[in-house]
Amino acid sequence: MVKSKPISEVQTDSCNLAASEQKSPKEYFDLPSHQEIAIEYDVPLFVSIKDSMMMELLNRRTSVALPLDFIHITSDYGYRKDPVTFVKGTFHNGIDLRCAKGSLVYAMMPGVIEKVVYSESGYGHHVIINHVGLRILYGHLGLIAVREGDVVSAGTIVALSSDTGKSTGPHLHIRAERLVEGEWKSINPEPFINHLNSYICGLQEEMENLHFASRPDRPLNLHNLFKVMKDCGVLYPKIVAAQYCLETGYGSSNVCRNYNNLFGLYNSSSHEYYRFRSWEESVDGYVRMIQRRYNPKKDKDYYAFLKRIGYAENMDSYNAKVRAIANTL
C-alpha cells in the first residue's frame, strides 16, 4: 500500500511558492522502489516439448494447401488432341483436375490476387494468384470469392469450380508460370503439385506419429484406406470412402482420432459411438455392421440402400454430399 503524509502537511497554495521552494512528489509520498528482473527460458512457459513440436508442424502445415480436396489429373501438360475442336497437336499449357461442379478451390500458398476475370470463353471465369516468383491461374471457375489486390493465405477459398469458358464439363484448369529474368515462363504445374502433396503427407504423418506417441502400423490416408477396403471386401469402395470423408471431416473429427471410428458407427442401445483399436478394424466393422444388410434385389443402388437403413438423419442431403465427394475420387 502507498503511504502518504497527513493531508494537513500538503501546501495547497503552491502558486504562491517560488519554484525553488516547491517540494517534489517524493517529499509528500513514499514511492515504491522498483527492481528490474530478467527471465531466461528456452521453451515457452506452460507448453511442453511435445506441444511445441506439434505447433511447429501445424504452422508448417498451414503454410501450404492443395487446390482441391482430392487431386486427380485428367489432362496433362503438353501437346494433346483438343477436346473441343479435336485438333491434334494443340499445346495444353496447364493440367486439368477432376472435380464436381461447386467444389471448393483453395490457394496453395500465401499470395496476392493479381487478376480476377469473368469470361465465357477461353479459361472462363478465372483467377491469377501471385506467389512472388510463381503465379498460378485457376480456370473454368464459377463463383469467385476474392477480389484483385486481396492478400490470401494457404487454404483460402478462392472460388467454386464450374465449367465456364472453353470446357467440355466441370473441372479445374491449373496453369503455372515462373519469373525468369524478368519474364513469366509457362511451366508444368504437375511436379509442383506432386511436391506439395508429398510435403503435406509427410507433415501429416509426423503429426500422427507425435499424436499417438509412436509410429502407427499404417497411416490413415485414402491410398491405405482403399487397400484395407479391398482386403476387407468392401462393396462400392468409392462411395464408402466418400462416407469416411464426410463423416470425419477428412479424418479430422474427434470420433475418428479418439475412437478410430471412420464412419460414425453408432450404438443405438448404449447411445455411444463404437470404439475400435485401429482404423483398419473400423473398416471391418463397417462390413459386419452395415454392408451385411445390403440386398441387391431390394436396393436399386448403394445410395438407395443407405437411405433404406436410415444411415443418417436427412438422407437426401447426406446422399447428395456423398455422391459429390465420390465423383472426385
Tell me what the structure shows.
This protein is of the alpha+beta class and 329 residues long. Among the domains are: 73-194, Glucose Permease (Domain IIA), CATH 2.70.70; 222-326, Lysozyme, CATH 1.10.530.10. The chain has nine helices and 16 strands. It has helices spanning 25-28, 49-61, 189-212, 222-232, 237-248, 254-259, 279-289, 302-308, 315-326, and strands at residues 3-4, 29-30, 73-75, 78-80, 90-92, 95-98, 104-106, 111-117, 125-130, 134-144, 151-152, 157-161, 171-180, 183-187, 266-267, 272-273. The strands form four sheets. Strands 3, 6, 7, 8, 9, 10, 11, 12, 13 and 14 form a ten-stranded antiparallel β-sheet that branches. Strands 1-2 form a two-stranded antiparallel ribbon. A two-stranded antiparallel ribbon has the order 4-5. A hairpin with a 4-residue loop joins strand 15 (266-267) and strand 16 (272-273). Helix 5 packs across helix 9 (315-326). The protein is globular.
Helix proportion range: 25-40%
Helices and strands, in order, run as EHEHEEEEEEEEEEEEHHHHEEHHH
Strand residue content: 15-25%
Mean pLDDT over all positions? 83
From the 3D structure, determine the CATH topology of the domain at 73-194: Glucose Permease (Domain IIA)
User: Which architecture of the domain at 73-194 does the CATH hierarchy give at level 2?
Assistant: Distorted Sandwich
Largest sheet: 10 strands, antiparallel
Question: How many strands appear in the DSSP assignment?
Answer: 16
